[in-house]
Structures are given as structure tokens and as C-alpha cells.
Design a protein that fits this description.
Layout lengths: L2 H28 L2 H5 L2 H4 L3 H20 L11 H11 L5 H14 L10 H8 L3 H11 L2 H5 L5 H7 L4 H13 L3 E3 L4 E2 L2 E2 L9 E3 L1 H9 L3
Antiparallel strand pairs: 1-4, 2-3
Helix pairs in contact: 1-4, 4-6, 5-7, 8-11, 10-11
Length: about 220
């Protein structure tokens, strides 16, 4: 066997080893329904997906141990579980993997499962690490956030990111319905809220719920 063939064999063996570990991990999330899917689980995933899921699995175990719920998880309904695993498997960023891990833990926790909605999978898939960082920072600002007393420029300065990056994140988070621009103000039944990235920003109700679903 030449060197290239040996390398292929080595990579294949490693992939199978990782796939076996992740297969057990997937089964704990999807429950008995996983058996009906059979080998198709391996068909839709490539090696790097297995690798990412293995990293997320380690984070999940750590979170469950901290919450003292290891071994007490319940399966996620397939309509959420399958797209959740598929989406999480392509995430390589460590910070975002932590978000996915927390989302999975909450979805399999009998005390928190109701906070996880199918739409959260699509929303989190549309965010990068900067978006998640901005969202976390906004959620930590108390009344400043509630009253909409935070500007895009302030966000960029406080979390040490480029102003352009902050504006892009603001636009994306607003597109996803996670933040609102301006302070809601009404005169009678007329909404006179300002809507400008130059004025003020705060988390929306959806934003608060996503933050809650993706934290320990």
C-alpha cells in the first residue's frame, strides 16, 4: 500500500470512529426515532460535520454536569431536532458552538424545553459570532436596553468591534427581528417612533427569548 492509500485509509478510519461517537450523541437527542433513520444520518454528514458535532457534544456534557442534569435529558421532537443537528453540524466557531450547545441542552431539559422554538434554529443559523456577541451585550444592559438608550456607535466601542461590523450586525439582527431601532413612542394611536441606526437600539421580545434559549 502506497503512502496516499495509507493516508486515505487512516482518514477513513478516523471518520468512522468519530461517526460512531456522534451516532450515539444523535441518538440521545432524537430518541428511538433515530433508529428509523438508520444509515441516513451518516449519509447527510461529512467528516467536518462529525467533528463539529463532537465538539458541541463535549460542551453539552459540560453544561449538563454544571446544571446537574446529565443523563436526565429528554428527546427533542423530530421537527426541531433534525434541523437543529444539521444546522449545528456546520458551525466551527467556538463561541457559536457554545450557543448551539446551550440551545440543545435547554431543548432536552424538562424544565426548559418550552423555551426552544423551531424558528430559533433558522435564526441562529443566520447569525455569526459578532451578531451573537452584540446580542449578549445588549441583554446585559438592563434599563439602558429596555429604554432603547444604546446607539450603534456605543455598541462598537463597548465590545471593541469596528463600527462597520457593528452596523452590519445591527442590520442583520434587525432583519431577523431580534432588535428594534428607535424608542417606541405613541401619541394616542399614532406610532411616532424613530427608526434609525444613528438613534437608539434595543432587544425585541423575540431577541430576549432567543438569548434565554441559548444560555445556560
Amino acid at each position: 500500500m502506497d503512502d496516499s492509500a495509507k493516508e486515505i485509509a487512516k482518514t477513513t478510519a478516523k471518520a468512522l470512529e468519530v461517526a460512531e461517537k456522534v451516532g450515539g450523541f444523535v441518538a440521545t437527542i432524537l430518541g428511538e426515532a433515530c433508529k428509523e433513520l438508520g444509515a441516513s444520518i451518516h449519509d447527510w454528514a461529512k467528516f467536518y460535520r462529525y467533528r463539529n458535532l463532537l465538539k458541541i457534544q463535549h460542551k453539552i456534557i459540560q453544561i449538563q454536569r454544571e446544571k446537574n442534569i446529565e443523563g436526565k435529558s429528554i428527546p427533542i421532537q423530530l421537527s426541531i431536532g433534525i434541523p437543529l443537528i444539521e444546522a449545528a453540524s456546520v458551525v466551527e466557531d467556538d463561541f457559536l458552538q457554545q450557543k448551539w450547545a446551550a440551545l440543545i441542552v435547554n431543548a432536552t431539559d424538562t424544565n426548559k424545553e418550552e423555551v426552544v422554538r423551531k424558528s430559533f434554529v433558522d435564526i441562529l443559523s443566520s447569525m455569526d459570532s459578532t451578531d451573537a456577541l452584540v446580542l449578549d451585550w445588549l441583554s446585559s444592559q438592563g434599563w439602558n436596553n429596555t429604554l432603547g438608550n444604546i446607539t450603534t456607535n456605543e455598541i462598537a466601542e463597548k465590545i471593541n468591534i469596528d463600527e462597520t461590523e457593528a452596523r452590519i450586525s445591527m442590520s442583520n439582527l434587525n432583519r431577523l427581528g431580534l432588535i428594534d431601532f428607535g424608542v417606541p413612542t405613541t401619541v394616542g394611536t399614532i406610532d411616532i417612533s424613530l427608526s434609525s441606526q444613528e438613534t437608539r437600539v434595543r432587544l425585541s421580545y423575540l431577541g430576549w427569548n432567543l438569548v434565554d434559549a441559548c444560555k445556560v
